[in-house]
Amino acid sequence: MISKITIFKFVFYFFCIKKMKENTDNNTVSVNPDACIWCGMCVAQCNETFKFQWNSYAEVIKQPETKQELASAKVAASDCPTGAIIVKD
Ligand code: SF4
Fold first, then answer.
1. What per-residue confidence (pLDDT) applies to 24?
2. How far is the CA of 11 from the centre of ligand 1 (A)?
3. Dist. CA 18 → ligand 1 center (Å)
4. Which residues line ligand 1 (CB under 6 A)?
5. CA 43–ligand 1 middle distance (angstroms)
6. What's the rounded Cα separation, in Å, for the pair 29 and 19?
7. pLDDT (0 to 100) of residue 56
């Protein structure tokens, strides 16, 4: 027989895990690898955030931590010729 405390624990852990997953999915900047044409503009403009993968598309190496880094990433996103960079506020 399942007690009410066990049910409460299950529900509590379910919502905790769900919230943790939301937090880890909440990246501010990302690159759509299918849209990237490897032009290098984002890496040249904002190398603290973007880097080339070996012989492949640009990737985000570090999420912006300051307003200045976020602004720089937004400029890179607006200058990206294919719109491959996604910035969430
Ligand atoms: S600016 Fe856009 S297309 Fe160019 S490397 Fe960066 S993500 Fe790829």
1. 43
2. 43
3. 32
4. 31, 36-42, 57-58, 80-82, 84-85
5. 8
6. 20
7. 83
Residue 54 identity? W
- Residue of minimum CA distance from atom 4 in ligand 1: 39
pTM for this prediction: 0.70
Pick the CATH number of 27-87 from 3.90.950.10, 3.40.50.620, 3.30.70.20, 3.20.20.140: 3.30.70.20
Q: Give the C-alpha distances (Å, rounded to integers) separating 27 from 5, 8, 70, 82.
A: 35, 31, 12, 20
pLDDT along the chain (89 residues), means of 10: 72 59 64 94 94 88 93 96 93
pLDDT at residue 23 in the model: 45
Beta bridge partners of 51: 59
What is residue 60's three-state secondary structure? strand
**Alpha-carbon span 63 to 56, nearest angstrom:** 20
